[in-house]
Fold:
Amino acid sequence: MLHPLGCNPVRAVNSEALQWASLFFGTHHTMSTHDSRRGAISLLALGLAFPGALLQGCDSAPSTIKIGVAQPLTGGLAALGQDLLNGVNLAVEERNREGVRVKGKAVRFEVIAVDDRANADTGREVARQLVDAGVVAVIGHLNSGVSIAAAPIYAEHNIAQMAISTNPKYTSLGLSTTFRLVANDTLQAKAIGSYSVTKFRSTKFAVIDDGTPYGKDLAAGAIQELTGAKKEIVIHASLDDKTRAFDELAGKLKAGGVEAIVTTLNDFQTVALLQALAKISYTDVHLLGGDTIKTTDMLKGVGLGKGLYATSPILEAKEFAAGGAFLEKYRAKYKIAPAYAGHYTYDAMYVLAAAIRRTESAKPADIVQALRKIDGYAPVTGSMKWDARGEQRYGVIGVYAATEKGWESQVRSDTW
Structure:
């Protein structure tokens, strides 16, 4: 029977043990049935006397260390999920080229990628697939609802889960294996409320969410901030994350005289909403969305309203001193610009590799403990460190304005 890390204890016997075996049985001794029984008893005694002789090989790392990546790779969020996967693949390629050793043994990283389809049930299914594949850690998922659903499965096997998801419930599960890569939605809701109140002179607001745990909870936090500032919520609509038809809602927004829209819809949905408003010539409106609209595809909405903004815990790669070098490497490999947060998963893979090197182990439980203690060097964003719940200590929320040239930073804060 193989050890969980692929070690065969029979093959792990060292030279000292073999010498003792030779003394017991003789190098060329042919055993009878009686001898075999006596030999088995003697070998058992040998194992009791020298337990390390039989097991020391089992502490060595496997030649290939498998890293799971679980993201939406098909459907409306495929561009974001692929970007997150690209970041990990780029880091793995670099680490393998540079060489990694664990207890003096050369190892290579291998990415096992799965498509969670931005669906909680699928997320649970692919989480089990990654566990069965023998991954030692997972970088995933994008969607909060999926991360929350999959988290107990990883935790059951002591597998670290490094998620870009922002819903506070993810790290409130009480699991030691949850690690958030960015700031959470409690801070993002404050940013939405604060920026809306100070930037927009509007008094009539609409709040539209996508019906997901991420969207509903972030919208609820934004409503709390807006009502606290005495702003009127004319319309609060809760849809789903697949809706593409917005003509009816656009009519209601116009009839209600809405001056500013706060939304947690996805990018393709927000573009469709702005297009529906343009069809009825209602474009004198500000729109502020969450981090899922701060994408390259969302720039299609530039010019369809009075102003298009996004709050995000995902700072642009270009905002960091080392961002230019990352962008150059990313574009050279993939022939496109990053769509979302590939530089965060790139950094997460580097920090994960550092944790494995420091703990000198590829055992999932050891990696979790190492991540809990690490203040890891992140090549692009600078550093990653987690508190006792797995919240990112260096998280901030930025506000961006969409222009024809791209997303331009307006302000950022770690307190709001």
The chain has 13 helices and 15 strands. The longest strand covers residues 105-115. Residues 78-98 form the longest helix (21 residues).
